[in-house]
Amino acid sequence: MKRREILVALGATTLVAALAGPGLAQERLAMGATFSSSSYYTYQVGIANYLNSTVEGLDLSVQELGGGEVSTQALLRGEIDMGIATTSSDYAAVNGEAPFEGTSDTLRTLYFFAPTPINFVVDAASNVQSLSDLKGVKFNPGGRGTSTERQVDMILAVLGIEPALERAEGSDALDAFQNRRIDGFVKLGLHPDGYIQQAAASRDIRILSMTPEEQQKVSEAYGFLAPATMNPGAFYGSEGEIATVQTAIGINTTADLDEKIAYNIAKAIFSEAGKTAEVEVYAPGESIDTAQLTLDVAVAPLHPGVIRYLEEAGYTVPEKLKP
To answer: Domains of the chain, with CATH numbers?
Structure first.
């Protein structure tokens, strides 16, 4: 009798599974996220909800882990299926640089959504008109101990420029500029930027533009810093196009992610509906061509599913971004 009950139960389970069909099968995936205090965490939660409602069979959860390096380490250990990424952390993983041990040949790019241009800001009343004019100038290279500070140190070194560096926390550097103890600073981000606006409220400012040669020299030395142009507009009392270099923030994965799932994620993200969903949780996304940004800044190869979608949509994928 007990054997019969077990067989009936197994048969019922099989029948339910068969009736459910493949369309209802759920692919449960985990996305590593940055700190919950970050606006990018809000973006990840919002986009995960959008993808779950758009991509059939996807059940994507968000796990708070930390920055791009921590998330990518967890990804390469197989603890998550995709995660927050920066071009600098991808570059380190692909090339086996600290904190990663050994090169990664399985890391793949899904997409990038947030460019982070490097803004070199100086007092407009100074004689500093270019990066090379920063020699000997009291200048803050970014918040003490931040990735911004490390990146600016690398940029200045490769260009052979030696300001009189004043290292300080971000708020202390802003105070020093407002009170004329330094003549310039660096701030990453799109415009308008609240930090730069506070600086401009106390002193007229100038955002320095890199020469094409400087852009090329930096990007050749550090593959995660891509040439970029931006127009800050009239937010700080001046207009005009500025040339610089930028990093970017996005979502990475590995070669283990199913090709169809990666394709459907790319299709959803790069669509008009995807743009609307992005802007709802990340307002600067309105002015960003996510697909083109991905092609411009990606360091790790694109996932084959992403490549298939982009090529079908008419984009040309560089050979260097193909696995």
So the answer is: 28-114+249-321 (3.40.190.10), 116-247 (3.40.190.10)
